[in-house]
TrEMBL record:
Transmembrane segments: none
Species lineage: Eukaryota, Fungi, Dikarya, Ascomycota, Saccharomycotina
Protein name: Sulfhydryl oxidase
GO cellular component: mitochondrion
Residue ranges of every copy of the ERV/ALR sulfhydryl oxidase domain listed in the record: 55-123
Keywords: Disulfide bond, FAD, Flavoprotein, Oxidoreductase
Superkingdom of origin organism: Eukaryota
Length: 123
């Protein structure tokens, strides 16, 4: 059966909603690897997954790593930031919300930042 004729699963093996790109194909970096494999009709590897060998990282690994980085970055943000610090942290979050390599997450994050503007006045 061709890929077009298959019913697209709405929910993956992880219980998460399957995210499809605008071209209708499952988004590789917006889904977990297991869900992506399921949605593309590939048999998932029955072994325990080696999370350090997934390439590109799936939504969970990307999220874990990104949150670790974001929290570390924010913990080093000065108590009394300079004008340059403020501009640079704004720039960083603007770029992150535009270029985060999970398109669905990036859109969500953009909306979040619009509704909750960054407070760059202190750590
Ligand atoms: C910018 C961004 C946008 C995302 N958007 C989406 C999305 O739209 N949909 C989606 O399904 N997933 C999204 N993710 C991924 C999601 O947030 C989780 O990272 C992912 O689902 C893995 O979940 P987890 O339970 O392992 O939690 P983790 O990735 O470990 O973290 C989840 C939560 O724990 C908090 N946390 C993590 N580390 C620390 C720390 N060191 N100190 C304090 N708090 C911490 C984070 O603030 C976060 O709220 C996004 C991630 C990022 C970075």
């Amino acid at each position: 059966m061709s890929e077009e004729n298959q019913t697209k699963p709405a929910v993956g093996a992880s219980g998460r909603k399957i995210i499809y790109d605008k071209d209708g194909k499952p988004c590789r970096s917006c889904n977990t690897l297991l869900d992506f494999q399921m949605a593309t009709g590939k048999v998932p590897a029955p072994v325990t997954k080696d999370k350090y060998r997934e390439d590109p990282p799936d939504v969970e690994r990307l999220g874990n790593s990104s949150w670790t980085f974001i929290h570390s970055l924010c913990s080093k943000y000065p108590e009394k930031p300079s004008t340059q610090d403020k501009a640079e942290i704004n720039g960083f979050f603007n770029v992150l919300s535009r270029m985060y390599p999970c398109t669905w997450c990036a859109d969500d994050f953009k909306k979040y930042l619009k509704d909750h503007p960054l407070d760059n006045s202190r750590q």
